[in-house]
Amino acid sequence: MVREQYLTTTDESGALAPVTEYIYMIGIYGWRKRCLYLFVLLLLIILVVNFALTIWILRVMWFNTEGMGYLQVNEDGLRLEGESEFLFPVYAQEIDSREDSALLVHSSENVTLNARNASGDVTGSVSVGPSQAEGFGQYFNISSNHDENLFYADVNGAVVGKGKLRVTGPEGAIFEHSVRTPMVKAVLNKELKLESPTRSLSMDAPKGVHVKALAGNVDVTAHFDIQLHSTAGLLILDAESVRLPTLPVGEASDEFLGIYNTYYEVCVCPSGKLFISKAAVTSTCSESQDC
């Protein structure tokens, strides 16, 4: 701001002559000055609020020299105490619990664990939802704490590594296709039942099929035929007595009867059909039944 000031002086002739003097006054006055003070006051208030919020966040989040609250940063990675909630995906190479507690993962929807390769493609996944659990991978393996293979499954099949598969359900196990096993055994004091309601039941073995009941009977029932076939060997029925109560009875001629009419013999037709005939001095199979 410049203000002109006029002074009067006398010249050599003694007459008064006006002299102009310029005085410069630097500053902000009026409404501009009030706006500046208001802006400075506003900045001061914002600075105080930011400082107070910073102190509050530090106290609430429990920041310290080792980490943040229950989250501690050490040489091995991160250690988290207590319960925590993650709103977004978590990427970690390894997650371990404390030695004296279990690792629990809870979710209101589902829990999904993904493994990716160097290209970022998912190579394995395990998802546990509210109604089902799904797994995706090239193979599935369950091992004991002694590195014993308990269960293994891939595209070629499933293997029970312990050597025994136990089914405890009252309805047993249902197999839609063939089953390969060295032994099928019932639980103690329970009966073993192999059943095919609508199809045939076949048991094959390269060295023979052994059916044994230590404390009970062996019942074989079929709607059509029961075939016992041995390609190279014998068919052995090892029991105290073998009974075929419904075999047809053949009739022999009267000349072969006599004191032997209360005895019978088992006859076999060339087709393999069995029947019984009244015994005599000689065999009556050929004359007793039409094969």
Plain-language structure description:
This protein is α+β, with helices and mostly antiparallel strands. It is 12% helix and 24% strand. The chain is built from two helices and 14 strands. It has a three-stranded antiparallel beta sheet with strand order 3-4-5, with no helix packed on it. A three-stranded antiparallel beta sheet has the order 6-7-8, with no helix packed on it. β7 and β8 form a beta hairpin. The longest helix is centred in the first third of the chain and has 30 residues. The chain starts with a strand and ends with a helix.
| Major sheet characteristics | 3 strands, antiparallel
Rg from C-alpha positions? 51 Å
Overall shape: it is: rod-shaped
Percent helix among the residues?
10-25%
Strand arrangement, major sheet: 3-4-5
Task: Give unreliable regions as ranges.
Answer: none
Derived structural class: alpha+beta
Please state roughly what percent of the residues sit in beta strands, choosing from under 5%, 5-15%, 15-25%, 25-35%, 35-45% or over 45%.
Answer: 15-25%
Number of strands: 14
Q: Given the structure, what is the number of helices?
A: 2
Overall pLDDT: 76
In N-to-C order, the SSE pattern is EEHEEEEEEEEEEEEH
Separation, N- and C-terminal Cα atoms: 142 Å
Give the secondary structure arrangement, pairings included.
Layout lengths: L1 E9 L5 E9 L6 H30 L6 E2 L2 E4 L2 E4 L30 E6 L5 E7 L4 E4 L3 E4 L5 E6 L2 E4 L88 E2 L13 E5 L5 E5 L6 H4 L3
Parallel strand pairs: 12-14
Antiparallel strand pairs: 1-2, 3-4, 4-5, 6-7, 7-8, 9-10, 10-11, 13-14
